[in-house]
Amino acid sequence: MQALWMVLAAFLFASMGVCVKIASAHFNAAELVCYRGLIGIVILWLLARSQRVTLVTRYPGMHAWRLVLTVLTGFVGVVMMLRPSLDQNQAFAGLIGLMSGMTAAFAYMQVVALSRLGEPESRTVFYFAVGSAVAGGLALLLTGTSAWPGWPALWLLPIGVLAAGGQLCMTRAYASAKTQRGTLVVANLQYSGIVFAAIYSVALFGDQIPPMGWVGMALIVGSGIVATVLRARAAPGTPAEEH
Asked: Rg (Cα) of the chain, in Å, rounded?
């Protein structure tokens, strides 16, 4: 089941990337990160309340460490996506996949550790949303804000919803991987985001990805799989087997 959660997470992250691409015509990267976090806070608060889960944690340091890694990676990913120097957006698919992949890789150990300590997914993702809002808000002190665009601002809503959903699914995937093999499968499937992003890129934006681009994506996926396998062989006694 953890494999399906990871595939769903990759799909949601790729879908979020489409919304970010559209909303970037009206908002800068700092605004997108900040608003994504604020919307996520509301969603996760409502979810936790419906589950009768308190948001007070006994492990603030562990949450903070995960926020630092994931928020910085996500922020860099958004900035890379919005760089105007990307020729014909041909790097769009690869960047979206890499963003979700790097985020999952950095956060995975903390997710497993937090789940072992009994932290529910809604609480874990809530603090990620808080970190996004704070990081984006601080960045706004340097970048400033854009003029409010009116109706196009509605694109912020799916960005927040899809980000929260993707984080929840990713957290559930890693937390439910009870063996080393299960963790390996989940880690590999995070690169499926590249495939989803490529489909979006061609279908929605009419991008023409040359054969070399497809080869590059295949290399990214392949290198991720090989790296994960080598990591698993190097550490056969990882705690994931006991989770």
From this structure: 18
| Separation CA 47–CA 53 (nearest Å) | 8
Nearest alpha-carbon partner for 58 in 114, 106, 111, 130: 114
The per-residue pLDDT string of the chain (243 residues; one tens digit each, 9 = 90 and over) reads 777 898 899 899 999 999 999 999 999 988 999 999 999 999 999 999 999 998 888 777 666 655 765 655 555 555 555 554 444 444 555 555 555 555 555 556 667 677 767 788 898 889 889 988 988 898 899 889 999 999 999 999 999 999 999 989 988 888 887 777 777 777 777 778 888 888 898 889 888 888 877 787 777 677 666 766 665 665 554 444 444
pTM, two decimals, is 0.76
